[in-house]
Amino acid sequence: GAEGILVSLRDESGSVIATTRTNREGGYRFQQLDLGRYGVTIELPDELRLTTRPVREVALTRGMISQKNDF
Known about the structure:
This protein is an all-beta fold. The chain is built from no helices and 4 strands.
């Protein structure tokens, strides 16, 4: 993983509702979210290239922990 990558959480309309940056291992976390559908996007520096889908779709249900939403 890459450290310091900007990760954005988007609501169903596509609006950014939260942001965070990846840690040393490339991990990130959004906490205390309401139930619903979200999109997760990243902004890479010019020297890096995305090789997967640009948006991860996540649907949260009660008590759910969503993991492995890697790019």
